[in-house]
Every structure is written in structure tokens, then in C-alpha cells.
């Protein structure tokens, strides 16, 4: 025994390294069968796997240029981070973009900007920018709602996001006067900090789920009665990243608490089916919307990604004939984010936002319905200039998901589907969440929203308007290589926007239905 120990203790450190490598080589060649590269190139084959695994970080930090990455490039992320921290978000020396490039967008400025008088609401608060339309007004819902902010937090469930992230977002919207869309996971305790909430549900009916997995109107009524901060209800038909796919919440993210809120089992993948149980065609959907609006008094809308238009046409015809229908329509772009989706869906199914929204708006406008509906847009629209374009095309409000995540610390690691989100935002790991301070992060979301609104107001004034709802299609141009060829939006997308009735910002401020408790003080 002693001789063996003596022999082992005489082996030098590099001898141990050689023994270790020899063991790895034996394992690579003889014991494992799953990796051909390791078998054929023992030891050094591992380098390949390791380099591949750190490739995304290396490219993000060192290789990719400022405008190269997707979904959001470094300049876009940097603008959100700086805005959220109230740091200098300007750039020096002029734009680093090739503004002659194809598809580049220009906003036509006025010779003289809009003049803001001393007692104008924006002189008092540069970030005051409510929605120009009242949701539910046309359909005479009992509790109409004017969102007090044109930028709001898009649907992201507690489950796909961590408790601390939801808490931060909810406290943030309260500070910014915006609303918080719950996403599909039901209303959690972290949505109850007093900010406006839009309750969203999909085919899983989480939070309003009957015993048989269908929809429970009783639960819906109770939920709305118990939580007066719920200002509107959104029925999810589809989302841009995975239309027609239903949802998946990976089992790794289903904790006891989430299981209880959703009414599902701990640790098991939760699948929301592609179809709703509560309705199976367009007329039934309209009845369903009316039933919920009648039972709760709240405005009810639908969220969808756009592809074929036949069923939208049918919806528009029913709305025209019956005078009923959704109070708002949220159009999500194919570029939209998700907690988890197959790449074939995320990359290819449904139209990009500008095409999808343009098609839908045009259809509603031709039927004379565009004034009845509040249009909400989502799909990388959380940047003031892009938002101006969206307003020119007809949106009344913007929803942001990933931009909101970035404002509270998301680093675009793109691992939301693994439960290993390094920033603690899209994970249920208590350890990873521990770094989030909801008080600080809520200030960051609010500051991002305020900066966004301030810059959007400034762009609006530069174009000679008081509110972005006044943007028209021909205020924005898209570059097609030469100015003689560059086309305004109306000629690019072949429609003109219906003018939004707008009198003054002061009128919006005085509105009885203005959200975020503005007029309850
Ligand atoms: C983590 C995460 C979770 C999401 N969960 C939902 C959801 O429950 N329901 C839904 O309709 N959309 C969901 N979405 C889509 C967003 O609400 C939004 O429509 C989309 O990401 C486009 O907005 P963005 O470009 O600002 O991220 C989710 C997106 C993300 C990133």
C-alpha cells in the first residue's frame, strides 16, 4: 500500500495532467458513442464544443458591429439601457447609419415645429402622452378606458418571467402611468401594485379556467370585481412568434406558486392548445367578446398576428352588420418575441408588423371601421422614430415586451426557454432572481417609458403636430434608393389613415376615463 502511495506522490503535476488527458481520450474513443467529433479527434474535439458554446457571447461582445445583431442591435439596446438609467442617450458626430440604404425611414419635419405654450400639458410634464382614443367608447362599455400612456408593457406571463421581473414591471407602470398586460399566465400577486392592468388570456384560460380546462365566466367576473385595477381584457388569438402554435411553458419553469395560479401540475410542460374552447368561428368569437364585456363592464379586445385576411374580413362584416365586436385589436408582428417557440415558426409564420398591420388597417378602413377600434401595435416598436411610423400607419398605442425586459436588465442572452436566464428576468431560479431589486428596476422601466414618450413628443412637435395621432401616412417616407423613387407610406402601403379625432392634449388630460388614476387625485 505504502509503495503505491509513494509512487503516486512522486508523480509530478504535469504527470497528473497527462493521466487526466489520457483518461479523457479513453472515454472519448471507447466509452462514449454520442459525439463523433470527440471520437475521431479525442481531447481536442472538446475544444470545438466549448468554442461553439461561447460563440454567441464572443460575437456579441467582440465581433458583431453596432448595428448587426438581431433581434436588437447594440445601438438599440444601448439606447434603452441609457434611457432607463437616465444616462446620456445621445450620439455624437452624426448618425452612424447609412441613411441612403434601402428601407431606411424618414420623418418629414415641418419648417417650424409645433409651439408649446406655457400652460400646455407638455410644458408642465414633458412625458405626458396619453392615448388619443378611449377604449370601449364606441361600444358604450360600462367602464371605458383611456390609457394614460401610449407605451405600455406587452403580454408576458408570470411563469415565462420571474416574480421579481413581474413585480418590477408592475411597479414601473404605476410610476409611468402605463398599463401592464398580464400575458397568458393569469393574474399573480406581483401584478397587484396598483398600476393599470390589462388581463390577457389565451387558450389555456389561466386564471379564468374552468374544471374542464375551458373558460369560466364566473371566475372572470370575480377576478374583475376583486381587482378594480383591471381596466381591459385581451383575448389572445395568436402572437407573432408562433401563430397557431399555442403556448409552451417548459416544466422547468413550473414552480408550486405558478402551478397554483394557473391550475396546472408542478414541473410538467404546460401546453396551451392552438384553438379556443370557448368559440370555434368568427361569429361565436364576437358573441364571446360581447358576453365578457357585458358581464364585466370592461372593454374587450383581441390580440393576433396577421397572415390571411379572410376571417378578418368576416369579422369586419359582422362588426358592420351588428354594431358589435372588439374594442381594441392588438396586432403583433412576425418579428415579435416569445418565451419559447420553434425557430421555423418564429422565423417564418405570420407577416412582419408593417405588412400585417398595414393589411389589417386597410381592410378596416375600407369598411369604415377604423374609428371604432383602438389599434395597438407590438413588434420592436419601442423606439420613438419607429413608433412615429406606427402612429402614421394607424396605431393608437404601442405595447413593448423585450424592450421593457431590457430596461430592467435583460442582456438578450436569448435563453428564455431554458430557465437559465442570467439576468434573472426569464427564469424561475430563486438564485438568479436574487440580483433583481424591484424598486430600482421599476424606476428603470418608468424612466425608459418617460424618455420614450418625451422623445416621441419631441419628434411629433418637429413634424408640426401636438400629438402623434396626428401623423399621416405621407409624413413618413421609405427609401427605395433615390429620393425620386422613395415613397411616402400611403404610396408604399396603398392606404391613407383615418384622421383620429383630436382636439387638444388638455382635453385628454381632463378626460374622465384617463387611466393611471390621473383624475382621481
Ligand atoms: C418572455 C416573453 C413572453 C411572452 N408571453 C406572451 C404571452 O403570454 N402572450 C402573448 O400574446 N404574447 C407574449 N409575448 C409576446 C409579446 O407580448 C409581444 O407581442 C412581442 O414580443 C412583440 O413585442 P416586442 O417586440 O416589444 O418584444 C411574450 C414575449 C416574450 C419576450
From TrEMBL:
Entry-linked CDD domains: GltS_FMN
Transmembrane feature ranges: 12-30
Domain Glutamate synthase positions: 140-465
Annotated GO biological process: glutamate biosynthetic process
Pfam families listed in its UniProt record: Glu_synthase
A molecular function (GO) term: glutamate synthase activity
Keywords from the UniProt entry: Membrane, Transmembrane, Transmembrane helix
InterPro entries (alphabetical): Aldolase_TIM, GltB, Glu_synthdom
Matches recorded under PANTHER family: ARCHAEAL-TYPE GLUTAMATE SYNTHASE [NADPH]
UniProt similarity note: Belongs to the glutamate synthase family.
Name this protein carries in UniProt: FMN-binding glutamate synthase family protein
Organism: Flavivirga rizhaonensis
Amino acid at each position: 500500500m505504502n509503495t503505491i502511495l509513494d509512487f503516486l506522490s512522486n508523480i509530478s503535476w504535469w504527470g497528473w495532467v497527462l493521466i487526466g488527458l489520457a483518461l479523457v481520450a479513453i472515454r472519448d474513443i471507447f466509452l462514449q458513442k454520442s459525439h463523433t467529433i470527440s471520437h475521431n479527434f479525442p481531447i481536442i474535439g472538446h475544444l470545438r464544443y466549448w468554442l461553439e458554446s461561447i460563440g454567441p457571447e464572443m460575437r456579441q461582445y467582440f465581433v458583431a458591429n453596432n448595428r448587426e445583431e438581431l433581434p436588437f442591435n447594440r445601438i438599440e439596446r444601448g439606447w434603452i439601457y441609457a434611457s432607463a438609467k437616465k444616462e446620456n442617450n445621445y450620439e455624437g458626430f452624426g448618425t452612424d447609419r447609412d441613411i441612403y440604404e434601402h428601407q431606411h425611414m424618414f420623418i418629414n419635419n415641418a419648417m417650424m415645429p409645433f409651439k408649446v405654450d406655457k400652460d400646455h400639458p407638455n410644458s408642465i410634464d414633458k412625458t405626458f402622452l396619453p392615448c388619443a382614443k378611449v377604449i370601449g367608447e364606441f361600444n358604450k362599455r360600462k367602464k371605458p378606458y383611456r390609457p394614460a400612456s401610449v407605451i405600455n408593457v406587452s403580454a408576458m406571463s408570470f411563469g415565462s418571467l420571474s416574480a421579481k421581473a413581474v413585480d418590477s414591471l408592475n411597479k414601473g407602470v404605476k410610476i409611468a402611468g402605463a398599463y401592464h398586460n398580464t400575458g397568458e399566465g393569469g393574474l399573480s400577486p406581483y401584478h397587484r401594485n396598483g398600476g393599470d392592468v390589462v388581463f390577457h388570456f389565451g387558450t389555456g384560460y389561466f386564471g379564468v379556467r374552468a374544471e374542464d380546462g375551458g373558460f369560466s365566466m364566473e371566475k372572470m367576473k370575480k377576478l374583475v370585481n376583486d381587482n378594480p385595477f383591471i381596466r381591459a381584457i385581451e383575448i389572445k388569438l395568436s402572437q407573432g412568434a408562433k401563430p397557431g402554435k399555442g403556448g409552451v411553458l417548459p416544466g422547468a419553469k413550473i414552480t408550486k406558486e405558478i402551478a397554483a395560479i394557473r391550475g396546472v401540475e408542478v414541473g410538467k410542460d404546460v401546453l396551451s392548445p392552438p384553438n379556443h374552447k370557448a368559440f370555434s368561428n368568427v361569429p361565436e368569437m364576437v358573441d364571446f367578446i360581447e358576453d365578457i364585456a357585458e358581464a364585466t363592464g370592461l372593454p374587450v379586445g383581441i390580440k393576433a398576428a396577421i397572415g390571411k385576411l379572410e376571417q378578418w374580413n368576416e369579422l369586419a362584416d359582422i362588426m358592420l352588420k351588428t354594431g358589435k365586436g372588439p374594442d381594441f385589436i392588438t396586432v403583433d408582428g412576425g418579428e415579435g418575441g416569445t418565451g419559447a417557440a420553434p425557430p421555423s415558426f418564429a422565423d417564418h409564420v405570420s407577416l412582419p408588423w408593417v405588412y400585417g398591420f398595414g393589411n389589417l388597417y386597410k381592410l378596416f378602413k375600407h369598411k369604415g371601421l377604423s374609428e371604432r377600434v383602438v389599434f395597438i401595435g407590438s413588434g420592436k416598436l419601442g423606439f420613438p422614430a419607429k413608433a412615429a411610423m406606427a402612429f402614421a400607419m394607424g396605431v393608437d398605442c404601442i405595447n413593448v415586451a423585450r424592450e421593457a425586459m431590457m430596461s430592467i436588465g435583460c442582456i438578450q442572452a436569448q435563453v428564455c426557454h431554458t430557465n437559465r436566464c442570467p439576468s434573472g428576468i426569464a427564469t424561475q431560479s430563486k438564485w438568479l432572481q436574487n440580483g433583481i431589486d424591484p424598486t430600482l428596476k421599476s424606476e428603470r422601466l418608468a424612466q425608459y417609458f418617460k424618455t420614450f414618450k418625451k422623445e416621441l413628443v419631441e419628434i411629433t412637435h418637429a413634424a408640426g403636430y401636438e400629438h402623434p395621432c396626428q401623423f399621416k401616412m405621407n409624413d413618413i417616407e421609405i427609401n427605395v434608393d433615390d429620393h425620386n423613387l422613395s415613397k411616402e407610406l400611403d404610396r408604399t402601403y396603398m392606404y391613407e389613415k383615418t384622421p383620429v379625432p383630436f382636439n387638444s392634449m388638455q382635453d385628454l388630460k381632463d378626460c374622465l376615463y384617463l387611466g393611471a388614476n390621473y383624475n382621481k387625485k
